Structure prediction request, 203 residues.
Amino acid sequence: MKMNKGRLIVFSAPSGCGKGTMLAEILKNERFRCSVSATTRSPREGELDGINYHFLTREDFERHIAAGEFLEYAEYCKNFYGTLVSEVDSYLEKGINVILEIEVQGAMKIKQKRPDAIFVFIAPPSIGELTRRLRKRGTESDEVIAERVSQAAGEIAMAEKYDYVIVNDALEDAVSDFFAVIRAEELKAVCSGEIINEVLKNA
Ligand code: ADP
Ligand code: 5GP
Prediction:
């Protein structure tokens, strides 16, 4: 049977909600790929260039903006983050679902450019639990944690602009909710044109 194109999935959550942890589980499924964003922030311990992010200088990032190579970009906590077009379209053509792990300003830009994308917001069980997770991760100073937690409340208020909200309380449940959302989207009648044609063609 002919394969449908992959779906573009916008996956947002305030820093520390567990996006990275959820994605590690989701990406075990080979039908999913995470776009590697470009950023001007410094790598955290263990992060690799080209794997976690394309780590760029501000000058290089601005050169990519000028060349029109970003599908979207945004400034978040004093650093630039952006999605390169080259990270998305060729994979969708191959039937792979491409996940953009991006913050809300960038997500809203995608909503205008790619209205067929699936918008999923990951929320923490509470602001208190979000703070505990960021402290436990231990990758940011207290000052940066405070900045990210205060940013989080504003971002959570934007959740209603998304198609789906998943609370990452128990990890396993959150991951299974994600796959349920994508499966339901794939089965929508409006996305089934090619499949219906195949069914009618084959006697
Ligand atoms: P993000 O990618 O959204 O910034 P991480 O995936 O790095 O967040 O998770 C932040 C911290 O919370 C990590 O220490 C991670 O182990 C922990 N964490 C993630 N999901 C859960 C969960 N469901 N329950 C408890 N801790 C979690
Ligand atoms: P972090 O510094 O914790 O890796 O990411 C900070 C925020 O930037 C997160 O909310 C993350 O989703 C977002 N982000 C990562 N890549 C991109 C991107 O390409 N574009 C946009 N708009 N946001 C991104």
The chain has a mean pLDDT of 93.
